[in-house]
Design brief:
By secondary structure, this protein is an alpha/beta fold. The chain contains eleven helices and 27 strands. Helix 1 runs parallel beside helix 11 and helix 2 runs parallel beside helix 10. It starts with a helix and ends with a helix. The relative contact order is 0.16.
Length: about 425
């Protein structure tokens, strides 16, 4: 099998065949919904991102009519973080990256509740909503994504507001796009990267590349510079490809490792770090990450250093609270925090919950995968891939084979394949 075909296979609905015993694999343009599979119960899912939407869909697709699924998500739609870097350069719009939940409800029978969760009662097994109503559950899945630590900012409120992370697609993406467009050839764009773990390991380096490419291609910004201040000791993903990109393709990028932020003066655009002070016209500071608020507000759930949720990766059930599962970026696992991984974790979780509702043991050797394409310019891209398998000795998901593999080059063909990968992944989650 060609590697590009392998990546497509893992990205599309066929990937479920590695994990699901029920044979309900999506075929092009059709869905086979099962009747009663012997699984019966109420599952509430909190969070409608890549992980939450996928688990809700596959709980119904594999669990059948006996599994009632309710998705609690206060927003009427989801904006993809994947490809949001292309919004900064005008190659995509937020509208093009917006996905709604209509198919989830009409085709799969998931009940959508557009409310906010205010509390969880694990003893009574119910979720309390902001309108005072309660949702009882037999199994609860929490997929809250990430939250951010506050940055050490100084300066006027107006200037502090210009220092955005744009690491969750939305209003900050638009703000950063406007700031980049206002740059001139004499300006500098500063990007800060937090210490790992953070969402999408190659993402910040990708952003540096696409912004540097945009500045070079635009007449009024040709000559502008990009400075990458990385709190980590080195590039965290696709080391060979990004090193090549920084050294040979984008000569306007300066990469500075081990540069942890100590203070950002928003009035002067000065970023003070452990590696020195740097000044820029635009400061794009990505703060340190932690699990979404619903996890960190609950000490029992935030069992991994108070910042992440410790889980059993056979089912993603909490290590400390029974019948509550945490998937996606909020979970503390050996897998990267990324949209493709969230999709894969959701399928393992859905499969496990269906087995548990049938009174059966869960799959003792689940597999997941991480596949990611990265735009380097507006016409070229690279990729990485790795397959994880459960290791019973460590109780973790470990890379199989040669571990993480990255493309041997940066080229236009990869860019074409990237578009197919994205389409497959988003279709598998939302269609």
């Amino acid at each position: 099998m060609q590697r590009r075909d392998f990546l497509h296979y893992l990205s599309a609905g066929a990937a479920v065949g590695m994990m699901a015993p029920f044979g309900n694999v999506l075929a092009a343009g059709s869905v086979t919904m099962p009747g009663n599979t012997g699984a019966n119960g109420r599952v509430v899912v909190i969070g409608g991102g890549m992980a939450g939407t996928t688990v809700a869909k596959y709980l119904r697709l594999w669990g059948g009519t006996g599994v009632q699924v309710t998705l609690v998500e206060p927003n009427p739609s989801y904006i993809s973080n994947i490809f949001s870097n292309k919004v900064l350069t005008g190659e995509r719009t937020l509208t093009q990256l917006t996905y709604k939940y209509g198919t989830l409800t009409s085709k799969y029978g998931v009940k959508l509740v557009t409310k906010s969760v205010v509390a969880i009662d694990p003893t009574g097994q119910q979720v309390m909503l902001n309108d005072g109503s309660k949702l009882p559950y037999d199994r609860l899945v929490i997929a809250p994504g990430i939250a951010f630590d506050a940055l050490p900012l100084s300066g006027t409120a107006a200037n502090q507001a210009k220092v955005v992370h744009a690491w969750q697609a939305g209003a900050q993406t638009t703000s950063l796009q406007s700031q980049i467009k206002a740059m001139t050839k004499a300006d500098t764009f500063i990007l800060t990267i937090p210490a790992k773990p953070y969402r999408c390991p190659p993402g910040p380096y990708e952003r540096a590349c696409v912004v540097a490419d945009y500045l070079t291609r635009t007449a009024k910004t040709k000559g502008a510079k990009v400075v990458v201040l990385d709190a980590n000791p080195g590039i965290q993903a696709e080391v060979e490809n990004f090193t090549n990109a920084f050294n040979n393709i984008h000569k306007n990028i300066t990469y500075v490792p081990s540069a942890a932020i100590t203070n950002i003066d928003a009035d002067t655009g000065t970023v003070n770090t452990s590696a020195g002070a740097f000044k820029g016209k635009v400061v794009n500071a990505i703060p340190p990450h932690k699990a979404g608020k619903i996890i960190t507000d609950n000490p029992l759930l935030a069992s991994a250093g108070g910042r992440w949720a410790g889980v059993n990766v056979l089912s993603y059930e909490s290590n400390t609270v029974p019948k509550i599962h945490i998937i996606g970026d909020a979970a503390a696992t050996t897998q990267p925090k990324a949209g493709h991984v969230a999709n894969a974790e959701a399928k393992v979780c859905a499969d496990a919950i269906v087995h548990l509702l049938r009174g059966e043991a869960v799959n003792p050797s689940p597999m997941t995968n991480s596949a990611c394409y990265t735009p380097i310019t507006n016409k070229t891209a690279s990729w990485l891939s790795v397959v994880y398998r459960y290791d019973p000795v460590t109780g973790t998901m470990l890379p199989t084979g040669n571990g993480v593999t990255e493309s041997s080059g940066i080229n236009a063909k990869n860019h074409e394949e990237m578009l197919k990968w994205f389409s497959n992944l988003m279709s598998d989650t939302f269609a």
